[in-house]
Amino acid sequence: MQRVLVVLAGLMLLISPTLAEAAASAAANGKSTDALAITLAEMSSFTGVTSDGWIYYLEYDEASGRSVQKKKKADGSGAQVVKNSEVFIKPYNYSRFVNYSYTDNNVISLTNKPQFVKQLAQNPNASIIDIIGDSVIYWVGTVKSGKFTTGTIKKAKLDGKQVTVLTADNGQIDWASFTVYKNTLFYTMEENNTYVLYRVGLDGKNKKKLASDYYAPVGQMDKKAGPVTYYGPYQRRNIVISNDQIVYLNMNESAVRLKIDGSGKLLLHEDESGNPFVEGDWLYYSTKSDPEAKDWLSSYSYYGPIYKVKLSGGKPIPITKGHSGLLFVKDGWVYYETESYELDHRLIRVKTDGSSAQTVLAGLVGDQEFYTRAVIGDWLTYTLYDNEESAGDYRIKLNGTDNTKLAYSTAPDAPTAEEQAEYEQAVRQNYGKYEMPDMLKQVIALEDELRERKMLLGGGLIHPYFEGFGIGYRYESTPIDVIPFAMDNYDDEVHYGFLTDFGTVSNLDEAAIVRVSPYEDDPVQIVAGNFRAFMQLLAYKPMSVQYWMADMPEDDYAYLQEEAAEVEQSLTQKEKDVMSIVRERFALEPISDVYAYMQKLGEDREKKIAAATEDGLGVVYSGTETASVQPLAFDFEEYEDGVHRADLKDFFEEASTLDKLVFFRDGQYYYLWHDNSKAIAYLQEQLKAMGLEDEANRIAYPEPYEYDDEYGADYEALYEYYFGS
């Protein structure tokens, strides 16, 4: 017995240090993981995290309109600029369509990858879907409005050899759906205004249509940023596959489960569900508190109770009562919020069986409410609103402790003299030969005044946010003869600008106003005849400028006004006061028949233009130059994958001035020259030769993505690599 004890003691001497080291290592890893989570929470956005612990992020330069890629360590130290060739972002690396912060949260180094992968990552007409072992799965084709409209999905070795075509469908493939699971690619495609779910083996065999009623994915806490769990309400959601079962919402917004081979299809519940979420073998979802209640966007309000149902089927089980809007499920806890209009807007968590309710966030008073932003590790980030104005961003532990205001949401430092001078120069470049209209200056001044009085609607005046924008505030779809002056309060990619018709309007008071929505199929719409009319519409019928589309049927417009009436009824007194102040300050009267006004706007435009263009604006031209009997058109379809300067030169040597102006409209519509700095330089020369100095300056923005010379920086070299010389 004594010998046994001695032996056991000896084993303990050997084991104990190992256990202690393991415990110490686990504690250290826990601390480093939490440090990473805190650093990410403290950032307003980030690109992703690499396997070696670097955080990549974009830092925007206001004056140039260019984002610089940087990286820093998990603890926030060591910030430095990154070469564009150093990393690529999964699954889609082209910022025209994807906000980096909302894609996958990991980045992969290109440093040790073969040249083929580097060129794929830099090709704007390609998308790396995934890298698995020594193979890369990628898509090559064309893109429009964020969808892969034509093209082929392939698999190849990392050196570009042994290429296998997985699918060559020419439909509207949804880029967000690409999901690789057990040597199979799952994806959805838009067909006849609905999504169809497909699968195909990574060997290109056994392609199969799985479902024709796919509507949307469900949620799942399956994304990570390095070792840290990350879940954001707007992040890209793949097709959710759990234990060889696909879970999705059908067209009735009810959850469906089927096996990955397409068999065993089962309707899990018949309720229209809100924010369904998979955790383990269960699906959780909110139901509508009032089936007849709709908000101003005609979407239903999902505020409980919350149910759960087994993925194998069975009767849904309620786990909450009353108002309870499901947010997410994590580590055995269901997190939900009470209605924001209740006296005390709360965030609560319960165990997955409905027990052990705990309040995570409460204590809001008056008109305070919160908006959850992301789950990062054991932290939740949220924005606090007070009287509908942001009162800052915060992070709080999921157990309700350590509620901390984020540093970036504090008041920014006043700009330095140098920064102010750069900003003013950028504004001057944006306006070019024109002066900012006095009425716009007065609107901006009123906006500042009402902001000081804490009366603004979500930060901007009425609906848009007015500002003297620098030349860098442009998107690829912003026409080069448009001067932006306001952006949407709720979607800062949507903006409004003065249409100068290539510098032919005498002053901006007379310029038509356009709305630019970069990710719409028809991104540019004329919404007012001049700035004063624009303000009249905003002051009385704001949804007209927000949603008007050319050739909108009268029935659709009538429905839009019904929605607008509901919005007007729901306005707070403060919002009504702001509307009254704007109307009185600028002596604005309502336009009696807005639909007729909009129709006439389009008719008058048709009479003015000398040539139609793809973007619907057309070209106003009164030159005396004799145009060719048959206008010279540029074949954009032939060059949809890129264009050489030689092709441009052939066209410009033969084209009339009107032909060239049409080219600039249509070329921008087809994204012909973006990310091709040499083509842009040539087009700048042509614009200057035409006397369009301001347009020549604007065409350089947003600045093209500069590829590192080490990896064949020239776009035309990439073009030749893929499509031949």
TrEMBL record:
<protein>
    <recommendedName>
        <fullName>Prolow-density lipoprotein receptor-related protein 1-like beta-propeller domain-containing protein</fullName>
    </recommendedName>
</protein>
<dbReference type="InterPro" id="IPR011042">
    <property type="entry name" value="6-blade_b-propeller_TolB-like"/>
</dbReference>
<feature type="domain" description="Prolow-density lipoprotein receptor-related protein 1-like beta-propeller">
    <location>
        <begin position="40"/>
        <end position="216"/>
    </location>
</feature>
<feature type="signal peptide">
    <location>
        <begin position="1"/>
        <end position="22"/>
    </location>
</feature>
<feature type="domain" description="Prolow-density lipoprotein receptor-related protein 1-like beta-propeller">
    <location>
        <begin position="303"/>
        <end position="419"/>
    </location>
</feature>
<dbReference type="Pfam" id="PF16472">
    <property type="entry name" value="DUF5050"/>
</dbReference>
<keyword id="KW-0732">Signal</keyword>
<dbReference type="InterPro" id="IPR032485">
    <property type="entry name" value="LRP1-like_beta_prop"/>
</dbReference>
